[in-house]
Structures are given as structure tokens and as C-alpha cells.
Amino acid sequence: MKKLFALALAVILALCCVSALADEDPYKDLGSYVMMVGHAQPEGNPRYVSMEQFAADVAEKTNGHVTVQVFGNGQLGTEKEMLEQVVQGVTQGMRGGQFDFSPRLLMFTLPFLANNREEVTALLHSDLAKKVCAEAEESTGTVIINLCDAGGFRQFSNSKHTIKTPADLVGLKMRTNGMKTIDLTFKALGATTTSIPYADLYMGLKTAIADGQENPWVNVEGMKFYEVQKYFTEVNYQFHPDPFYVNAEWWNSLPEEFRTIISECATAMGDYNDQLIDQNSDAAKQKIIDSGAEVYVPTAEELAAFQEACQPVYEQVVTEGICTQEELDEMLAIVQAVRGN
Questions:
Q1: I need a labelling partner for 100 at 20 to 30 A (CA). Which of 2, 86, 275, 321 fits?
Q2: Residue 23: its pLDDT value, please?
Q3: If DSSP codes are grouped into helix, strand and coil, which group holds residue 197?
Q4: Alpha carbon of 221 to those of 194, 213, 216: distances in Å?
Q5: 315: which residues sit within 8 A by CB, 6+ positions away?
Q6: pLDDT score of 21
Q7: What is the pLDDT of residue 97?
Q8: 101 in the same domain as 53
Q9: 95 lies in the same domain as 213
Q10: Domain that holds residue 311
Q11: How far apart are CA 236 and CA 111, in angstroms?
Q12: Do 217 and 247 fall within a single domain?
């Protein structure tokens, strides 16, 4: 009898606890939602890790009322396909440097615009960046709820020879992801370009569809591009914004409380992502060196030659309407303010 009494008491106490927790749930009347989010990066990449943390944070802070289902490693298709799915409402979100539907974000990808993390952060957190993100809803039907770094500064690699000067790029066929500023940069440096989806890039390099490519150290290491590329140059020529696109109709249907929580979690996710990039970049670079690949670091004079050769790209982005001269001047002023501190 004592055991039965103790068991019954335990059950009653458990039910009381569940009832109390339910009564304490401030979101119990707001419903439940599922947020499917895709991205292209493999396990271990800062985007992958930070997205998993985002999902856990949202579940915790909404008391389980919003479930974020993350599909990494290109499970839902290419970045362009995933963005199309978000625009169509097939999925709720995607993260990645896909600017086909928001080409104005390309202004932040000008070659040699920023030199360090502080300058990148200042640009991505600026009022100009907020303005450009706000344009996305009207033009694409998406809301950009965070803008962080897509992987760190980007480097050149190829399978033919060491790249020390712009002349070393002449005659090389370099892969791009279709971004205008990458194409313009390589053409300014004398290379030709070919577009290959990120998920297909390893095989594209292995089969010599392209001689070379450009990516941050963490991407090169994560995708094992060093297995099919011999020569790397640490040129730090460009960074990419990493917009977190969310279907606007779905977003606006959420209770305000959940929009606030998801936005806060997305901000924390972006900060964590950038920290992971900074922490992992040197280790990724060392792994590439340990693989037997060559990593060449240009001298200051050699780097200046690359920067000089890329100056026409600044004029071209204004001519092509990616940004205005005033916006270009604003970006340069933002960077200069950081350098002056």
C-alpha cells in the first residue's frame, strides 16, 4: 500500500508540475509554427553550426512553439533554388550569399573594400545595410532578418601556378557563383570566368571545367577544395554578406512576440557565426597547408597591384546601378571612420 500511495503521489505531483508549467507559458495561446530553413554549407562550417544554435535558441525562447528545421549541405538544392523556394513560400527561410533577387547587396562585395573584421561589421551593421535589406521585401517578397559574414575574406586558388600578380591570372578560367562583382573583378585582373554551383564546384575543379576558384579558408577546408587545387594566394580580396531570407507573408503572419524572439535569435546567430569564422579561419588555412597545397602571401607591393587593377570595378558598379556614387562614398566613409579610430 505504501508503494502504491507513493506512486500515486508522484503522479499527482507530476501532473501538478505540468499544469503549472502550462499556466506559466506566456505563449500558450499563440499557436505553433514550423520554420524550414535551407543552406548550402556542410557540417562543421560556421554557417552550419550557427544555424543549429539558432534553431535551439528559438525553440527554447518560444517554449517550443516555433520549431526551426534546418536543412544544410545543399539538401534543398542550390542557393538560387533555395531562395526561389522561399520567395514561393515552399520553405520559410534560407541563408546564403545569393543576391540574384537582391542585387543591391552586391555593393558590399566590392574588391578590397574592407581589411578586417571591424570594418566588415561596421558595413554590415550600418544604416546603409539596413536600408538595402529593407528593399528586399518590396522587390522579392522576402524579409532579411539578419546580415552577417558568409565565411570570411576570400582567397584565390588554381591548379596551374602560383598567383603573385594580376598578370598571373591572365589566361586562367576562374569559377564564379554568378555574382557580378566576382565576374567584374576577375575580368579586371585578366582572367576568364565560368559559373558553377557551389555544390558542384569540387567536381568542376577536379575535371578542369575551371582552373581555379575563390572562397574563404573555412569553405575551402570544409568542401575539401584543397584536394583538387594546388596553389592558393591569401589575397583577402572580398567578403560576402550572408543574408538570412525569410518569406515575408509567413513572417508577417507570425505573432509579434515570435517575430521579436526570432529576430533576437537571428542577431545572436550572426554574431556567433562571425566569431566562429574568426576562430576557424587560421585552423582551416593550416589544414590546407598541411595537405601539401601551397599558400602564397603577397607582399604589400604585390597586394597594391591587385588593388590598383580592381579600381575600375568601383566605377562599373555605379554605372550598372548596383549602387549610387553617394552610396559608394558612404561605404568608403564607414570604412575610413573605423580605420581612423
A1: 275
A2: 59
A3: coil
A4: 22, 13, 9
A5: none
A6: 46
A7: 84
A8: yes
A9: no
A10: 154-239+282-340
A11: 9
A12: no
DSSP per-residue letters across 44-63:
TSHHHHHHHHHHHHHHHHTT
Residue 187 grid coordinates: 575580368
On whether the pTM is more than 0.90, the answer is no
Distance CA 247, CA 145 (A): 10
CB 117 within 8 A of CB 335: no
Distance CA 281, CA 218 (A): 6
- Region label for 247, one of left (φ > 0), alpha (ψ between -120 and 50) or beta (otherwise): beta
Residues 246 and 128 in one domain: yes
Residue 13 lies in a domain: no
142-149 and 173-176 strand pairing = unpaired
Low-confidence ranges of the chain (pLDDT < 50): 1-11, 13-22
Instruction: For residue 221, give the C-alpha cell.
Output: 577546408
What ranges in the chain are assigned the alpha helix state H?
Answer: 2-24, 46-61, 79-88, 117-124, 127-140, 180-188, 201-206, 217-223, 248-253, 256-290, 300-309, 311-319, 325-340
In the sheet that 212-216 helps form, which strands lie side by side, from edge to edge? Answer: 192-195, 173-176, 212-216, 154-158, 231-233, 294-296
pLDDT at 20: 45
**Residue type (1 letter), 194:** T
Work out the number of other CB atoms within 10 angstroms of the CB of residue 20. 10
Residue whose grid cell is 518569406: 247
> How far apart, in whole angstroms, are the C-alpha atoms of residue 124 and residue 107?
11
Report d(CA 66, CA 98) in Å as an integer.
25
What grid cell was written down for 40?
548550402
Q: Identity (one letter) of the amino acid at 133?
A: C
Element (H, E) at 40: none
In angstroms, rounded to a whole number, what is the distance separating the alpha carbons of residues 269 and 62?
16
Cα-based distances in Å from 64 to 35, 52, 113: 12, 15, 42
Cell numbers 575574406 correspond to what residue?
A: 153
